[in-house]
Amino acid sequence: MKRLTLILTLLLSSLFTFAQESGRQHRIVMQLSSGDTLVHKNLMKQFKNMLEAAPTAKIEVVCHGPGMDMLMSDRSIVAAKVKEFASKGVRFLACDNTIRERNLDPALVIPEAGHVKAGIIHIVERQEDGWSYIKAGF
Amino acid sequence: MKRLTLILTLLLSSLFTFAQESGRQHRIVMQLSSGDTLVHKNLMKQFKNMLEAAPTAKIEVVCHGPGMDMLMSDRSIVAAKVKEFASKGVRFLACDNTIRERNLDPALVIPEAGHVKAGIIHIVERQEDGWSYIKAGF
Amino acid sequence: MKRLTLILTLLLSSLFTFAQESGRQHRIVMQLSSGDTLVHKNLMKQFKNMLEAAPTAKIEVVCHGPGMDMLMSDRSIVAAKVKEFASKGVRFLACDNTIRERNLDPALVIPEAGHVKAGIIHIVERQEDGWSYIKAGF
């Protein structure tokens, strides 16, 4: 019985420590499905604020549907900022289903962006791995 | 001490296996609160892509507020698609609070749809049970 | 081996009990980033429905970006309702980054509202602590 108590205590305390220490490692998967350029500009401000408040946060931004516009070098109004935040560790991910369905030219996708096959399924898998989900947009 | 190590190892490895095996069973609760018919059409494309990328995924779509329009047979522009995806296992759920507050005729709700009392609380409970959450719309 | 089985059984059953009992304590963090007054009015209806369906639910609403308008006493069209729901336990949180960036007058923030430094990071931390996330808006 003593051993049981010990094991449960150790296990629970390690879980709580992991979950609750204040300097914890945030992992954030954001979904951008909006083509609204105001949303894109606002998102850049949010990256700045997030990285200031939590400099070690892992941030991924999955762009799909009209949201892919933010990653297209021929139309994005925040291309320079995307490159800047990519260099600071924010991971931008283009949805290949969207590229195919919208007949976008893959060569025009900002080269700093990574790719996922199906945007929503990637977001789902991140949540299954314990990442927090934030839907971008107003 | 050996036993403790064994137990922790077994426990952690089973947790990791459950969470990380690539063929894992996705459970996805989507929230549709938009009455925008472009959102409704886009959602149908997303179902197609999701089921292609993850054929065994469990998908629920909770429709509330203006989003209930997608499930009303007198105004939905995707009624045929809703029936098609319902037959493929996507579960559409109508919010009874919305039906009452918007004075919608319950007899006009697409019969393939299920019902929940309070849409948001259902979404919350699914998240508590480990489902991933996706907000539909742009 | 018997002890192992016992420990695993106890542990799993306590986890399942915690997660699945029907009268469970909901903890919900909502994100309001929209300045649309229709969204603000709709949100008030949602609070009413949520508290009816789950009277003991803990609800927080993080207002940032244009969503801060709902907490500004000089422009909110639901200020009276915000105060009413605050008195019923709904916790409204103003984003200090937004106040600074939008040059909002902190003295005009509805006094019932609390404050967070960075709205999105607060939402992320709540999810890490097991709260369910709901994005407000259509």
Span of the ends, CA to CA of chain A: 54 Å
Oligomer: homotrimer
- Tell me the total number of β-strands of chain A: 5
Low-pLDDT residue intervals, each spanning 5 or more residues of chain A: 16-21
Greatest interface and its participating residue counts: A-B, 28 and 26 residues
List SSEs of chain A in N-to-C order. HEHEHEHEHE
Number of helices of chain A: 5
Q: Approximately how much beta-strand content do the residues of chain A carry?
A: 15-25%
How confident is the prediction overall: mean pLDDT of chain A?
Answer: 91
Helix content of chain A: 40-55%
Strand order of the largest sheet of chain A: 4-3-2-1-5
Molecular shape of chain A: elongated
Which labels suit this protein?
homotrimer; 138 residues; alpha/beta; 5-stranded parallel sheet; 5 helices; 44% helix
Describe this structure in words.
In chain A, α2 links the parallel β1 and β2. Chain A is of the alpha/beta class and 138 residues long. Chain A is elongated and about 65 Å long. Chain A has a five-stranded parallel beta sheet with strand order 4-3-2-1-5, sandwiched between helices. Chains in contact: A-B, A-C, B-C. The interface between A and B is medium-sized, with 28 and 26 residues.
Write the layout of secondary structure elements.
The structure is a homotrimer of 138-residue chains.
Chain A (H helix, E strand, L loop, with lengths): L1 H19 L6 E6 L4 H17 L4 E6 L15 H9 L3 E5 H6 L12 E3 L2 H10 L3 E4 L3
Parallel strand pairs in A: 1-2, 1-5, 2-3, 3-4
